């Protein structure tokens, strides 16, 4: 592998991690409007980061099994899954409904972390089909989502949540673009 190939893969994974973390960031903005202590913000970020490691890891293992079994068809399905996920994120960003407010404590924190990391399972499935490096991928996804969650929570404490829908639309657009890249090999 050349240095250029390695850097290209790192940049791609980092951009995908940003796209996935935008959901955690935008939900964190809304959650930041709840009166939270700094210790709670720390735990929420760590929990979201762990879920953004665990969910794509499970998805990647399942994706690798599918890849060995189905080859090209699995690659097309993985790209299609990314496209559908991206479109869903973009469309939901324009939805007028308010998301239900879950208190991020105890079981509510688990539900909150699971809800913002489900999309990372699908991306992990696609990346497993694609054959991405497991440790590097999940480490980047977990770290970026944890930091974006903290930023979202802290910014949410300071401002209104007007940026939330735009962040989700941006994240969905990036996932859509990577799905197209995976299908067409661009």
UniProtKB/TrEMBL annotation:
It is found in: Cell membrane. Keywords: Cell membrane, Ion transport, Manganese, Membrane, Transmembrane, Transmembrane helix, Transport. It is a multi-pass membrane protein. It comes from the Bacteria. The chain crosses the membrane at residues 12-34, 41-63, 69-94, 106-129, 135-156, 163-184. The keyword Transport applies. It holds the Pfam family Mntp. Probably functions as a manganese efflux pump. Belongs to the MntP (TC 9.B.29) family. This is Putative manganese efflux pump MntP. It comes from Metabacillus malikii.
């Amino acid at each position: 592998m050349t240095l250029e190939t390695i850097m290209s893969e790192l940049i791609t994974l980092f951009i995908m991690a940003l796209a996935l973390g935008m959901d955690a960031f935008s939900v964190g903005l809304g959650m930041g409007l709840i009166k939270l202590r700094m210790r709670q913000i720390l735990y929420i970020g760590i929990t979201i980061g762990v879920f953004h490691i665990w969910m794509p890891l499970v998805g990647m293992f399942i994706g690798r099994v599918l890849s060995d079994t189905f080859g090209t068809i699995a690659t097309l399905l993985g790209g299609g899954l990314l496209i559908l996920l991206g479109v869903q994120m973009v469309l939901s960003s324009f939805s007028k409904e308010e998301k239900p407010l879950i208190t991020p404590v105890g079981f509510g924190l688990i539900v909150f972390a699971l809800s913002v990391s489900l999309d990372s399972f699908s991306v992990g499935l696609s990346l497993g089909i694609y054959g991405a490096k497991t440790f590097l991928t999940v480490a980047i996804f977990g770290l970026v989502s944890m930091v974006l969650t903290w930023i979202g929570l802290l910014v949410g404490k300071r401002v209104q949540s007007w940026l939330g829908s735009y962040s989700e639309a941006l994240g969905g657009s990036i996932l859509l673009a990577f799905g197209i890249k995976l299908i067409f090999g661009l």
